[in-house]
Amino acid sequence: MADKKKQADADVAADEGVADGKPARKKKFPLKLILMAVGGLVLLGAGGGAFFMMKNKASATAMAAPVAKPPAFLDLPDTLVNLSNTGNERPQYLKVKIVLELPDQTMVAQVQPVLPRVMDSFQTYLRELRPTDLDGSAGLYRLKEELTRRVNNAIVPSRVNAVLFKEIVVQ
């Protein structure tokens, strides 16, 4: 029985790489080899990613891009209004030349019939302004946004891209 136990211990020692009480040296991959393999994989991944990105970019430029329609512009009649007077100040006037930027030329025919409604909406709003409402670029931006909103309400279901100022004078 003792012989069987010694034989079993010897088999276990041989399996674990232990011979004569000394452990056997395990084979390790050199660190340089591992780093080179990882570096190679990274380079291959980056190269493959660049290839597919360039391929997609090239195919996107090869496809015919839809041609955007140039916008159409519609000049409105010059507008001259007196601004709201707060107190005993002398009256001040606002002269504005406005251009509507339309999505395409076909919109001009749709806007022309409702132009009196658009001008009425503009006149009503502009007469309520005070000179301080037009101070600085923020005041002009608010004016442009409000006029755009009003013209879009007047020409529903159509829409304009923007209201542009050719000239703005406060006297």
Report what the structure shows:
The chain has five helices and six strands; from the N terminus they run H-E-E-H-E-E-E-H-H-H-E. 49% of the residues lie in helices and 18% in strands. Strand 1 and strand 2 (22-23) form a beta hairpin. It has two domains: 2-62, no CATH class; 72-170, Band 7 domain (Tetrahydropterin Synthase, Chain A, 2-Layer Sandwich), CATH 3.30.479.30. By secondary structure, the chain is of the alpha+beta class. The strands form two sheets. Strands 3, 4, 5 and 6 form a four-stranded antiparallel sheet that branches. A two-stranded antiparallel ribbon has the order 1-2. It has helices at 2-15, 31-62, 106-111, 115-127, 136-154, and strands at residues 18-19, 22-23, 72-75, 79-82, 93-102, 162-170. It is elongated.
